[in-house]
Amino acid sequence: MSDFNLSDGEFTDFSALSDEQWRQRLEPDSYQVLRHAATERPFSHEYTDAETEGVYVCRGCGTELFRSTEKFHSHCGWPSFFDPADSDAVIEKVDDSLGVRRTEVLCATCGGHLGHVFSGEGYETPTDLRYCINGLALELREK
Ligand SMILES: [Zn+2]
What parts of the sequence cross the membrane (predicted)? Predict the structure, then answer.
């Protein structure tokens, strides 16, 4: 899917990258999601219903964000997780952009937009949280 190598071994200060540098690093679709908070079409990404074991890393910076063991079938059209792999890996921010209060989820390392988190929807998961994440913001590393 991507020939972009996240683990090129060079240290990068992701917070210092310019918009143009991000544009060059990422595929166009992932760039729009991560850097401009676009939302991919529902049910469009291969990760939506994937059950492959592994970890999902940030497509922007390679940080581990979610694990397949915290992924569940929400039927909402986007990859859904009930908990981040490490709570410090993501940051959450209030987002009123659609006139409804939502909580945006961003990568703590590179600031990339990942998706939103919703609570109290009644899913039978340990947290009753749904991290609704764009597949384009993620890269699955199989176990
Ligand atoms: Zn990142």
Answer: none
Domain ranges in the chain? 6-142
Length, in residues, of the chain: 143
Render the burial of 117-138: b for 16+ CB within 10 Å, e for the rest. Answer: bbeeeebebeeebbbbbbbbbb
Model confidence pTM above 0.85: yes
d(CA 97, CA 66): 25
Instruction: Please write the tens of the pLDDT for every residue from 48-66.
Output: 999 999 999 999 999 999 9
- Cα separation, 42 vs 48, in Å, equals 9
Q: Quote the CA–CA distance of 107 and 128 in Å, as a whole number.
A: 21
Q: Mark the residues whose beta carbon lies below 5 A from ion ligand 1.
A: 58, 60-61, 107, 109-110, 112
